[in-house]
Design goal:
By secondary structure, the chain is mainly β. Helix content is about 5%, strand content about 55%. Strands 1-2-3-6-5-4 form a 6-stranded antiparallel β-barrel. A hairpin with a 2-residue loop joins strand 5 and strand 6. The protein starts with 5 loop residues before the first helix and ends with a strand. Pfam families: DUF6916. Keywords: Plasmid.
């Protein structure tokens, strides 16, 4: 697969992503896809960006690489970090730089 960029995810905001967890899946929603704040430097192979996913589950998954499946993008392995909890569930972030 080609190098992932913000453009891959920008059209997927609001879409479902199924996080594979053994034999089961955890539904996530891509809530945000935003450009990074770091300036693009010579030699960088992509512009930095971040993704915010929301889970309706109260269970916090540890930071690690997870397989996420989306109808538009297919299966992707993405490093997710839990960054917040609110009344709607858990918020996870993925940073690409």
């Amino acid at each position: 697969m080609e190098l992932l960029t913000l453009q891959h995810f920008a059209g997927c905001v609001g879409q479902a992503f199924d996080l594979t967890l053994g034999e089961s899946t955890v539904p996530l929603t891509l809530a945000e896809a935003t450009p990074g704040t770091t300036p693009i430097l010579p030699g960088m192979i992509r512009a930095p960006f971040s993704l915010i996913f929301r889970s309706g589950s109260a269970i916090v998954l540890p930071q690690q690489i997870y397989r996420l499946k989306n109808a538009s993008l297919g299966a992707l392995d993405i490093f997710l970090v839990p960054v917040a909890r609110d009344k709607q569930g858990i918020v996870y972030q993925a940073v690409f730089n």
